[in-house]
């Protein structure tokens, strides 16, 4: 390790937007935009990009950036009176210079603390005071951790209720070659059928058409296996009982202006979320929701990946 290793760099990104680059000793990196408090890039120690960002994303506020890890708060989706996915993803966050202490592994050096607070403008549509603290950490092994702490700071004695998601866009080689392990046999709410409830079959989830499902009460660990890339993403989550799986497929992709017509093939959203049971905080209460992403090489075994090994491993 060089003595000059810079773990955290503050600079300008696309469209002159403020961003923070996190770097780790073995070469992995991540980029976080203050606009949206959004992770836009996560690279492994070979410099390979692991997140999908649309080539048509304009990076022009007030539009949310299509890709990376948008934060959906205080509303996931369009069920509610707020704009789709809430407003946190198109607000300018600030650097949090003095966050309350975390009970975590504090040997990590590549991390940034961001904060979003209520504003007069937002109070017109969501009349609450809050502090949303987000820590993004890149571990020495290249794992990416996001921890959200949301506190009700209302002074009028009122509780508030919200839904939430880390809307992860993973970069995949070819959506037809990808499968998800860890969600089989679970119940899901189908966004394509008015959030009706169904039960998933026993097989791993594969993709051959549009999917937009909210799996409820899922295990804390989900694996996304990319056969062609021989790569497995492992998503671990805490405080986030649900998992959303979304791919727009060809017809829907054509209707999304900031997504290339063919780009649906190279993206898959698997999101750590709290949707089915909204979270309510009384004044002074804090909620914490955490996810950890890792990308590990996976190998073939008689033409098939062994998902059990992936799910059992650390
Ligand atoms: O998380 C899945 C989803 O809620 C889909 O319903 C979908 O349309 C999508 O997110 C993207 O939403 P956006 O508002 O970013 O276009």
TrEMBL record:
The EC number(s) attached to this protein equal 5.1.3.15
Supply one GO BP term: carbohydrate metabolic process
Using the UniProt record, name the top-level EC class of this enzyme in a single word: isomerase
| Annotated binding of substrate, by residue | 66, 84, 89
Report the family membership. Answer: Belongs to the glucose-6-phosphate 1-epimerase family.
Q: Which UniProt keywords apply?
A: Isomerase
Please list the reactions this protein catalyses: alpha-D-glucose 6-phosphate = beta-D-glucose 6-phosphate
Name the UniProt record assigns to this protein = glucose-6-phosphate 1-epimerase
The record's InterPro entries line, in alphabetical order, gives: Aldose_1/G6P_1-epimerase (IPR008183), G6P_1-epimerase (IPR025532), Gal_mutarotase_sf_dom (IPR011013), GH-type_carb-bd (IPR014718)
Q: Record's superkingdom?
A: Eukaryota
Q: Name one GO cellular component term.
A: cytoplasm
GO-annotated molecular function:
carbohydrate binding; glucose-6-phosphate 1-epimerase activity
In terms of Pfam families, this protein maps to:
Aldose_epim
Query: Which residues are catalytic?
Result: 167, 271
Supply the source organism for this entry: Actinidia chinensis var. chinensis
């Amino acid at each position: 390790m060089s003595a000059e290793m810079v773990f955290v760099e503050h600079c300008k990104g696309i469209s002159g937007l403020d961003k923070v680059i996190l770097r780790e000793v073995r070469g992995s990196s991540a980029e976080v935009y203050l606009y949206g408090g959004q992770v836009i890039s996560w690279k492994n120690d070979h410099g390979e990009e692991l997140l999908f960002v649309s080539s048509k994303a304009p990076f022009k506020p007030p539009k949310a950036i299509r890709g990376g890890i948008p934060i959906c708060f205080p509303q996931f989706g369009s069920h509610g009176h707020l704009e789709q996915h809430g407003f946190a993803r198109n607000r300018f966050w600030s650097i949090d210079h003095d966050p309350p202490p975390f009970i975590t592994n504090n040997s990590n050096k590549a991390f940034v603390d961001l904060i979003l607070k209520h504003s007069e403008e937002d109070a017109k549509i969501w009349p609450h005071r809050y502090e949303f603290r987000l820590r993004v950490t890149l571990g020495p092994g290249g794992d990416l951790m996001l921890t959200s702490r949301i506190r009700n700071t209302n002074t009028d004695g009122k509780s508030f209720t919200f839904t939430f998601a880390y809307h992860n866009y993973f970069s995949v080689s070819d959506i037809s070659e990808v499968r998800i392990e860890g969600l089989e046999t679970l119940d899901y709410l189908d966004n394509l059928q008015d959030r009706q409830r169904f039960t998933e079959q026993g097989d791993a989830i594969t993709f051959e058409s549009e999917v937009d499902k909210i799996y409820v009460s899922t295990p804390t660990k989900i694996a996304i296996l990319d056969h062609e890339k021989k790569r497995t993403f492992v998503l671990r989550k805490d405080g986030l009982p649900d998992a959303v799986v979304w791919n727009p497929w060809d017809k829907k992709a054509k209707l999304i202006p900031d997504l290339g017509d063919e780009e649906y093939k190279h993206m898959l959203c698997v999101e750590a979320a709290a949707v089915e049971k909204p979270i309510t905080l009384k004044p002074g209460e804090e909620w914490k929701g955490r996810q950890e992403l890792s990308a590990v090489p996976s190998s073939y075994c008689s033409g098939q990946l062994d998902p059990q090994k992936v799910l059992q491993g650390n």
